[in-house]
Structures are given as C-alpha cells and as structure tokens.
Write a structure and sequence with these properties.
Keywords: Flavoprotein, FMN, Monooxygenase, Oxidoreductase. Strand 1, helix 1 and strand 2 form a beta-alpha-beta unit. The protein is of the alpha/beta class. Strands 1-2-3-4-7-8-9-11 form an 8-stranded parallel barrel, surrounded by 8 helices. Strands 5-6 form a two-stranded antiparallel ribbon. 33% of the residues lie in helices and 12% in strands.
C-alpha cells in the first residue's frame, strides 16, 4: 500500500478491511464471479460532482489548477485499482459575468484548469498502472496535432493513454478559433468521423519495428516500414507520416460520449469506450442494446465497445450518513445557481420560468448539448417535475445518475446495472473531493471484490489490457515484416 508523506500531499491510507454484511443480499442470479471485471473510471474533476462541493468543509481548499491535488487524486484512484482517470476539457470560459456561479459550470468551461494532456503527462510520472484519458475536440483542433499528442502520451505513460473524442458543446468556443459561429451539428459530426479516421491512420504510419536504432550497424530507422497517409477529404488534407513511433497500444483507447443519433453512430464506428448518462436503468439498458447492436454493421463484435455509465456516488457507513452528506451539499446551493446549471445542461435559458411551475416542453434543436439535455427533459416529463425539482434532481450528480446509501446498498445498485447489461462499468464522480473517492474505495470496492465483480490487482500493463480490449493491427503493415 502506498503511503504519501510529501509535505505538499499529506500522508493518508485507504484501509482495506471488508465491511460487515448486514442484509442487502444480492439476488441469487447475481452470485459468482463476473466473467469480465467491472470497469471503474474516476472523474478527475478536483471540484467534485456537486455544484456546492467546493464550499464543503471536507473539500480541498483552492482547487483551481492545483498540481499537488491532481497527483494525490491520481494516486488515490490507482491505489483503488481504478482502470482510468478521465479529464473533461473545453476551449472557453463561461459565466464571467456571474463569478459566484463558476462552480455550476462544468470543468470544460472553467477559467482555471490545466490543459489535459499536459497534466496527464505529469501524472504519468507519478503513477504506474492507471489509464490517463483526456478530452480533445475534433471541431477546433487538427488530426495531425491530436495524433501526435496522444501518441506521445501513450509512450510517456507506457501504454496508458486514452483520447475522449468530442465535437464541442459550447457554441462560444467558436469565437476563440477565428469563427463567427459554432458549426451545425451535422457538419461537426461529419468532420469528427473524418478526423478520427485520419488520427487512426496516422497512428499506423510506422510499423512496430520501424526504428531498430542499431548502433552497431548505424541503422536508426527502416525506411521501408513507413506509410505516408496522403489523405484528401471533405474537411482535411493530411500527408503524413506522423513524426512519432507507433503508440505502445497501437492506438490509444478512443472514448466518446455522444448519445444523439449521430453521436451513437460515430461511437459504433470509432470508439472503444462510451461514456453514457441515462436517467433510469431501463433507459440505460436500451442505450446499451442500441450501441452494441450497431457494431456488426461496422465489422465489430459486442465486446469491442465498453459502455460506462456516469454516476455520482454518496457512500457512507450507513444510509443515514449518506443522506446527511447529500443534504449538507444541497443546502450550499442557491436557486440562482441551480437555474444556471439547469440552463447549461439543457441548452435553454431557464431564468424566466416559475421555480415551482412545470418544466417546459423543449424539443427544439440547438447547436449546444443535446444527449444529456434530452435525458434530463425526458425524466422531468415522465415524472412531472417542476423547474425547482428538476434542478434539484440533477445538481447532486451533475446530470448523471446517483447512487446513495451504505456500501451494501451502493454495491447492490452497481451490481444490478452491471449484471443486467445497463453498462460495462462506471464513470464515478465523488460528491466531495478527495474524501468521497477515498470513502468509495474504503467501503464499496471491498464489497465489489467480495462479489467477484472487481479486480484485486491490475491484469496487464496497458489501458487496453485492463479494459479487455485487443491491440489494433496496423492497417498498413502485417506482423513479421510484410507491408
């Protein structure tokens, strides 16, 4: 077990004693070890998953752009044998006119966050096993730059890099890239598909044995083992080859999060993992079946795509303690903050609607976010929620799902989602950082292990190994030296 005694990251331990079982026995059909371990990813947002978190007494002080906090969070997650850390990102700042509302803004829109690949390169130096996944947009970046960035991170980390492919949800980002307006959704997804194809082609520029670097013969590289992409398409012209060796994983793991029709099709064609947010287990099962069902059309098998459900977890020794923490955080949020966050998530300004009136029926399309927004509106419509009830519903989990209770209750919920094909694992956000993640690892992880659902040690050395994903073959070079 790692103990940290650096002055900048005070010492701490995660006890591994198993909690006593008191009731909450899982259904008989759930017994036995899982054939494939449940995937656990940690949301690396240093300000937690609740809008009121940063004001809580247990939250980190001064979390903005704090490297030591990021290091500690990565080590906590690795000590818990999590598969990966995930960093959201964007290219703009929102709410400058409302400084009290920055906590209601997602990490991708905040004014004091690290560029994610830079941060993950630093975290690669202080971790050994955990995957490192960063967000980069296909709308305001270039394929060659992204391919090089993530190939470099994969080499630096020894094969632990992942790229979260996004098309950008904030229309205001366009103004930072010499654009007068955000591109229409159809154009963004068309560009994203071509972008992903180029990036994968660039990662295959060099055969795995292209760089012998033999001092005795003086042969640094084999010029017969390189392929120039020479791509010319609707959106890009890229000659190649990439000026980086083939990544350790062949291709860094590609993640996506789109739940619109175009987003799901993009994921089915290019993604290895999908982050999904659905308000109920029934909706999650339907999405799971939908995404897996698309794969054969692209020559893929069901196990080639892993689906992670976004969830905020309030875990405590007892359900009453979890309820108390939940209420403490709720009490730190004003209606103004709640309305602002709700407006962002559904892409529609809500300030003019009565707090205790019904949520409006908003079916109009817009260029901002829609997948999560539609899920929120669907839950509000199905349950007849008011505006106030809707923002109170989403604030504790930043629009994701919410599991709350004792370790056994939380484990029961996770097991049901996992066993009944609502997901292959979870993107876990802690309501308060770092104590929420520490508490989850101390209380819930041992219970998941007792049920045969989660690992005791890492299975392999790369992120692909641990996720159960094969290393992609090079499309231009066959094994054993043939082109």
């Amino acid at each position: 077990m790692i103990v940290y005694d650096n002055a900048a990251t005070p010492g701490w331990r995660i006890p591994v004693a198993k909690p006593a079982r008191t009731g909450c026995t899982p259904p008989a059909s759930f017994e036995g070890a899982a054939a494939i371990p449940m995937i656990l990813a940690a949301n690396a947002n240093a300000q937690g998953s609740h809008v009121g978190e940063w004001r809580h007494r247990d939250a980190w002080d001064r979390p903005a752009s704090n490297l030591q906090n990021a290091i500690r969070l990565a080590r906590i997650a690795e000590e818990g044998k999590f598969d990966l850390l995930f960093l959201a990102d964007g290219n703009g700042v929102r709410n400058l006119d409302k400084p009290d509302l920055f906590a209601a803004t997602s990490p991708s829109d905040r004014p004091a966050v690290f560029e994610p690949v830079t941060l993950l390169s630093a975290l690669a130096m202080v971790t050994e096993h955990i995957g490192l996944v960063a967000t980069t947009t296909t709308t305001y970046d270039e394929p060659f730059a992204v391919a090089r960035r993530f190939a470099s991170l994969d080499h630096i980390s020894g094969g632990r890099a992942g790229w979260n492919l996004v098309t950008t949800s904030n229309p205001g980002d366009a103004l930072n890239f010499s654009k007068e307006a955000h591109a229409p959704r159809e154009d963004r997804y068309a560009r994203a598909g071509e972008f992903a194809e180029i990036v994968k082609g660039l990662w295959d520029s060099w055969a795995d044995d292209a760089f012998p670097q033999d001092k005795a013969s003086g042969r640094f590289l084999d010029p017969s083992r390189v392929h120039a992409l020479n791509h010319k398409g609707a959106h890009f012209a890229v000659a190649g080859p990439l000026n980086a060796p083939r990544p350790v994983q062949g291709h860094p793991v590609i993640f996506s999060a789109g739940q619109s029709e175009m987003g799901k099709e993009l994921s089915a064609q290019h993604a290895d993992c999908v982050f999904a947010i659905e308000g109920t287990i029934e909706r999650a099962r339907a999405l799971y079946a939908d995404l897996k069902g698309r794969l054969p059309r692209h020559g893929r098998t069901a196990d080639s795509l892993k689906i992670l459900s976004g969830v905020t977890i309030f875990a405590a020794e007892t359900a009453a303690e979890a309820d108390a923490l939940f209420q403490e955080l709720e009490d730190l949020v004003s209606p103004a903050v709640g309305l602002d966050y709700l407006s962002k998530m559904i892409g529609h300004r809500m300030a003019g609607y009565p707090l205790d009136g019904p949520m409006p029926d908003l079916e109009d399309e817009h260029v901002g976010p829609t997948g999560i927004g539609k899920a929120i509106l669907g839950v509000a419509r199905a349950e007849g929620l008011t505006v106030r009830q809707t923002y109170k519903r989403i604030l504790p989990q930043m629009a994701g799902n919410l599991f709350k209770g004792s370790a056994l209750q939380v484990a029961d919920q996770m097991e049901e989602w996992y066993r009944t094909q609502a997901c292959d694992g979870f993107m876990i956000a802690a309501p308060v950082v770092p104590t929420g993640l520490e508490r989850f690892i101390r209380l819930v992880v041992p219970e998941l292990r007792r049920r045969g659902l989660f690992r005791h040690e890492y299975e392999g050395r790369t992120l692909r190994d641990n996720l159960g994903l094969p290393r992609p073959a090079n499309r231009f070079f066959a094994p054993g030296g043939a082109a």
